[in-house]
From TrEMBL:
PANTHER family the record matches: FATTY ACID SYNTHASE, SI:DKEY-61P9.11
Domain Malonyl-CoA:ACP transacylase (MAT): 58-202
Signal peptide segment: none
Name assigned to this protein: Malonyl-CoA:ACP transacylase (MAT) domain-containing protein
Gene3D superfamilies attached to this UniProt entry: Malonyl-Coenzyme A Acyl Carrier Protein, domain 2
InterPro entries for the chain: Ac_transferase_dom_sf, Acyl_transferase_dom, Acyl_Trfase/lysoPLipase, PKS_NRPS_Biosynth_Enz
């Protein structure tokens, strides 16, 4: 069983039997299991049988990137590589250095900049979805958080890669400009107590 642990987040719902017990893994686990075995209420252990359900794919937002993200998958998955190449091409005129360079060069610091980080996140998520589809998986629902909404929109078929990637590049560049301006000039919000009162910084 330990050999399966790394794959459980991706395969538990579709390829292996569900565990019959679910319990919090902490110092109270043994006590909770004993309480459950004694059929005590409030044992914090739940038992039952898994049933086939629908798949929901979640596409996360800013902060999920890392240097060389996608490089290993690019080397081992044709679907992933082909889709990522489309993403690279779709934003090639908007990013210098290229998105490929930013993602695959371990010495590049471009992903510290939102102008590259946000397109990298969306491109990776779209390519990862293509890989899972090639493996026979299909989402019943897709949701996205922040910039991940762009990836979800592509996966659901609402927009194409060529439509979305330039938008994400522009979004990332604008957000980086705002962040740089706040860092340089200071930033904040103002509150107003009355229509004719001067705003005071918060």
């Amino acid at each position: 069983m330990p050999a399966l642990w790394p794959s459980q987040p991706c395969t538990r719902a579709v390829s292996i039997s569900h565990f019959r017990l679910a319990a919090p893994l902490n110092r109270e686990t043994a006590e909770a299991l004993s309480a459950w075995a004694g059929e005590k209420s409030g044992a914090l252990v739940y038992s039952g049988h898994g049933a086939s359900g629908k798949q929901v794919w979640l596409f996360t937002g800013q902060g999920s990137h890392w240097r060389t993200m996608g490089q290993t998958m690019y080397q081992h998955s044709t679907a992933f590589a082909d889709t990522l190449d489309r993403c690279f091409s779709a934003c090639s005129e908007m990013l210098t250095p290229s998105l490929r360079e930013a993602m695959f060069n371990p010495d590049s610091a471009q992903l510290d900049n939102m102008a590259w980080a946000q397109p990298a996140i969306v491109a990776f998520e779209i390519a990862m979805a293509a890989h899972w589809r090639a493996e026979g998986l299909k989402p019943d629902f897709a949701i996205g958080h922040s910039v991940g909404e762009f990836a979800a929109a592509v996966v659901c078929g609402h927009y194409t890669i060529e439509q979305v990637m330039p938008l994400v590049c522009r979004r990332g560049a604008l957000m980086q400009q705002c962040a740089s301006r706040v860092g340089r000039d200071g930033g904040g919000i103002c509150r107003r107590r009355h229509a004719d009162a001067a705003g005071s910084p918060v």
